[in-house]
Specification:
The structure holds two protein chains of two kinds. By secondary structure, chain A is α/β, with parallel strands linked by helices. Chain A has a single domain, classed as Rossmann fold, CATH 3.40.50. Chain A is 32% helix and 24% strand. Chain A contains eight helices and ten strands. In chain A, the strands form two sheets. Chain A has a six-stranded mixed beta sheet, sandwiched between helices. In chain A, strands 2-1-4-5 form a four-stranded antiparallel beta sheet, covered by helices on one side. Chain B is α+β, with helices and mostly antiparallel strands. Chain B folds into two domains: 190 residues, no CATH class; 94 residues, Alpha-Beta Plaits (2-Layer Sandwich), CATH 3.30.70. Chain B contains ten helices and four strands, in the order H-H-E-H-E-H-E-H-E-H-H-H-H-H. A four-stranded antiparallel beta sheet of chain B has the order 2-3-1-4, with helices on both faces. In chain B, helix 8 packs antiparallel against helix 10. The two termini of chain B are 18 Å apart. Classes of the chains: A alpha/beta, B alpha+beta. At the A-B interface, helix 2 and helix 3 of A face helix 1, helix 7 and helix 8 of B.
Chain lengths: 266, 298
């Protein structure tokens, strides 16, 4: 793996990259999905958000990527105030994130290479760099020999690795995964988690994984935030949380990816 | 917009057009039908207006004066009439001119037998109108003048021509309006189908950080393309149909050609081409924007 993921322009270590302050989310049916949650994630951390179905863990992740707006509380991610972010800035904000889903969400009519290159084209990486970046990303997930295959010809584990390569090819600051092993058997799930752990360890990418798989969580020995009925009932292995005021004082913004172009650092 | 964004928009726009072939063809077909009818109505209307204009040039009001009215008085009336807005031209025909014209047309050599001018009181003003719909107004004015003995007019022709002109205009606007709505609806459906079939792709784009322009651009371009292509086909068809129609009318209805002169196709197309293209592209743009607002939330 020759890529230098997010070294230039990255925040200094120990900086808080995600901060949720007293965040609540109430759906229109009235039931609170998230209830007064406060948490912070530091740069380079690996965090599991776990809990039973309906505990609010996926809602929390959706709030972090600004797919949902909280009904109460403050959300700051990578220096962006998500309560006040302008619509036109959302794309720019999301270019700093890599997102992986349980159902992979691959483009079924395209091959492995095209699925990964798709992410590069969206942020308008110059054509001559796309091939190199895509092959590097596929190499990282050990799929470079299958780049011409249609994704429908791959196993579930391989498809999730393609999704991971797509999430990583744009070199995100934060990798967010929503039940990434939910559709996989135990061995394949473990392989995927090892891969995500390697990305965190080798490139310092901050990782937030939402899962209900207690087996994986206990084997990984990472920070675990457990939720129940929309509230955090356990936060183990965390570094001391920064306050929201401290976070504001940092005044950093992770904006090396331009809103309408790609400022690529090799 | 960056060149790469522009290339993406154009490339994807073409791809979308070919991916939903049947819907694209239906949309292009409807726009074509709509603009073909527009072209036909426009051609008929323009020709009719041309005929009306030609007829207007020939429609005149003739004013005769009472016995004893002097040439100076008639000249003053002429000046007053010429100043009126609806009047294009006023010709003074003296009693001598009237007799000369009459005798030449109807009497020939027998006219020599007349020693006095039998049309002594026939000095008149021939008034040509620029707007025949105002003929009655002018006639009322003329009849109110003390010196005027009689006013000859051709109100029936004037009213028929201007009435038919208006009717064709209203009918064209109504039919074209309905067809335009149908075309916008069909384009909107085509684009909505495209958006539905790319829902997953659009969803992924959103998470990766695609801008609004990147996601929406191809669909707007698809709409513009549908509209543009839909406007070209009827122009070509109208060109041939118009020429053929004129040829048939000219050869089969010789009498008709004595009454009216058809405009050359080039004269009609000078205006029809830009109007059709603007209408087509406009329909495509409106259709795509409406659909994107409804179905594509980035």
């Amino acid at each position: 793996m020759s890529q230098n993921y997010r070294s230039a322009g990255s925040p200094d270590n120990d900086e808080t990259v995600i901060l949720l302050d007293n965040v609540s989310k109430q759906y229109t049916n009235g039931a609170p999905a998230v209830n007064h949650v406060t948490l912070s994630v530091r740069e380079g951390e690996f965090v599991f958000i776990t809990g039973e179905t309906g505990s609010g863990k996926s809602t929390l992740l959706k709030i972090m990527i600004h797919e949902l707006v909280p009904t109460e509380g403050t959300v700051r991610v990578l220096g962006y105030d998500l309560n006040r972010i302008r619509h036109g800035k959302i794309a720019k904000f999301r270019r700093n994130l890599g997102i992986v889903f349980q159902d992979f969400r691959l483009l079924k009519d395209r091959d492995v290479y095209e699925n990964v290159a798709f992410a590069q084209r969206i942020i308008q990486v110059p054509g001559n760099q796309i091939r190199r970046n895509v092959l590097n990303a596929l190499d990282m997930v050990s799929l470079s020999d299958k780049y011409k295959r249609k994704v429908t010809q791959l196993s579930g584990g391989e498809q999730q690795r393609v999704a991971l390569a797509r999430a990583l090819v744009n070199k995100p600051f934060i990798l967010l995964a929503d039940e990434p092993t939910g559709n996989l058997d135990a061995d394949t799930a473990w392989e995927i988690m090892q891969l995500i752990e390697r990305v965190n360890r080798e490139f310092g990418t901050t990782v937030v994984v939402v899962t209900h798989d207690r087996g994986i969580v206990s084997r990984m020995h990472k920070r675990v935030i457990e939720m129940k009925q929309g509230e955090i009932i356990r936060d183990e292995g965390s570094t001391p949380a920064e306050t929201y005021d401290d976070f504001e004082d940092d005044l950093f913004e992770y904006q090396d990816v331009d809103s309408d172009g790609y400022d690529y650092e090799d | 917009m960056r060149i790469s964004s522009l290339l993406h928009t154009v490339g994807q726009g073409f791809r979308l057009l070919f991916r939903n072939k049947s819907y694209s063809l239906a949309s292009i077909g409807t726009i074509s039908a709509c603009l073909f009818l527009f072209g036909m109505f426009y051609s008929v209307l323009t020709n009719f207006q041309h005929i009306v204009r030609t007829a207007e040039e020939g429609v005149s009001v003739t004013v005769f004066f009472k016995h004893g009215v002097t040439e100076e008085q008639i000249d003053q009336i002429r000046i007053a009439v010429e100043e009126r807005e609806e009047v294009a031209q006023v010709n003074y025909v003296s009693a001598e001119d009237a007799w000369a014209s009459f005798s030449e047309e109807y009497l020939g050599e027998y006219a020599e037998g007349f020693t006095e001018n039998p049309l002594e009181d026939s000095a008149n003003l021939e008034i040509y109108l620029s707007d025949i719909s105002k003929q009655s107004e002018l006639v009322s004015y003329l009849e109110s003048l003390e010196e005027v003995r009689m006013v000859n007019r051709s109100e029936l022709t004037a009213n028929t021509l201007s009435g038919a002109n208006r009717l064709i205009g209203y009918a064209s606007v109504a039919i074209i309006g309905i067809l335009l709505l149908v075309a916008v609806f069909l384009i909107s459906n085509t684009i909505a189908t495209g958006i539905q079939s790319h829902k997953d792709e659009i969803n992924i784009m959103k998470y990766i950080g695609a801008t609004d322009l990147y996601v929406r651009g191809p669909y707007v371009f698809e709409g513009l393309l549908l509209g543009f292509l839909g406007s070209l086909i009827p122009l070509v068809v109208t060109y041939f149909v118009y020429n053929k129609a004129v040829e048939i009318i000219t050869s089969r209805y010789y009498m008709l050609t004595q009454l009216m002169k058809f405009l050359p196709v080039e004269e009609i197309f000078t205006t029809l081409i830009p109007i059709s293209v603007i209408l087509g592209v406009g329909i495509g743009f409106v259709g795509s924007i409406l659909t994107i607002r409804k179905h594509l939330h980035v």
